[in-house]
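Hey, I'm writing a tutorial for new members on how sequence and structure tokens pair up, and I'd like a real worked example in the thread rather than a made-up one. If someone can provide the structure for the chain below, I'll link this post from the tutorial.
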Amino acid sequence: MLAVSGNRRQRAARDRMASAALEYAAMGWPCFPGAHPPAAGDRSCSCDRMGCPDPAAHPVSAAWAHQASADPDRIRRWWSQRPEANIILPTGRVFDVFDVPAAAGAAALDRIAREDLPVGPVANLGDERHLFFVATRGAPADEDEWWSCHLDTSPETVAETPGMRWHCRDSYVVAPPSVLASGREAGWLRPPAGAPLPDPLLLLEVLADSCE
């Protein structure tokens, strides 16, 4: 019985990433497999780059932007091949993400509650960063309507932006229950509930003030 229970626990741990990715796909959120901390050894990332600059927090392929999908069959195939893969969510499609230090995020949530402001899903990345999911501005029907912001973050500039970041088109975030390089997990403080996402400008001032 102990062996059976142990096998069930291992199977549940192995399948939980796929299950979470399928839940995101059911909401219309495209996903892509991400690197993860290796089960053994002294490396912090499963990729083959020595000194990976973003361990366990990047897609497994540079083609992620073209291949990310909400197709359940594709997701099952990806995670059957990489059951421990973290979950990458491209931004600038269904949603944008404000990415702030955890202390600033906690302060912003307190103010949001006091002032009864709109807020969507909020994720916690190992008590290091908070991710605020908002309506996207990244895919206007008319390209001339696109407006840039100094907070826009691409995968190449994440390390250079320690404060507030705005993940829009051509960027991505790591989604719960992904395991971070520290061994901690990403988790939801406010899980997705299917409600409309808030206008980013309604939260921009609150989050910017909290980061000062």
